[in-house]
Design goal:
This protein is α/β, with parallel strands linked by helices. Helices cover 29% and strands 20% of the residues. It folds into two domains: 2-51, no CATH class; 62-240, no CATH class. The strands form three sheets. Strands 5-10-9-8-11-6 form a six-stranded mixed β-sheet, with helices on both faces. It has a three-stranded antiparallel β-sheet with strand order 2-1-3. It has a three-stranded parallel β-sheet with strand order 4-12-7, covered by helices on one side. It is globular, with a radius of gyration of 17 Å.
Length: 249
Amino acid sequence: MRAALGGPHEEGGKHISGGEHLSSKADMQVKAVELIDKAFSHTQGEPTFFQMTIDKVEEHLQAIKPLSVSTIDATDAAQGRKLARSLLADHGISDEVIKKAMNLLESSNDNRGALIINAKTGERLDERKEKGVRVSHLYWEKENFEQWCKQKELVVNQRMKEALTLATKVCSHPLTIAELCWSDDPDYITGYVASAAKGYQRITKVKEYGDEAGGRLFFVNDDQSIDSYIHYLEKIPVSIGTEENYELN
């Protein structure tokens, strides 16, 4: 699902909401209604353009465990950005590359998907312009997520569920070194750095309220096929859960 103000995204419409569900056929109608509700209850307003597509998934569903979660408090956006840079540096990414990549994120709110960044040079690799790469075909069943939160003594949070589901899929690929994200939603100021090595590290404040700039950066090694990496992110179905054989019926 995607929704925008002022027309389709391709014609200059402003992106205000997006989302997806990986669903069994029996649950399709319920999941469709959830996406409609999400699009038409966004804090940035009611969309004038709304589009939903349904694709049959043919590939085998992979089951992976969620990343560990930790939270770091930041007093203001400046401290939050500093913490994000420090967390990325812990993954061996240079200050020059981090600065170059974060400038891309800070200077635009038009990217509809993630930017793939060469962790050695800071150059963008996906060549998708404002479209970016949309991570898709991912799923975490609601009851399973709530059970996991209870086990980890975490508050059930829908925003965290969506972000953690995506980050877990991204970071499960061996090409990913780390992900940096903060939302383009002007009313949501929490961001994160995630990786297989360090888990999902939430930073409570990485921007000020009212700031509409945001997006995702995937820092990767440059020794594998980017086309194959993008195919995994966009097309390979993944379920997140606490059981080894967790699958949709």
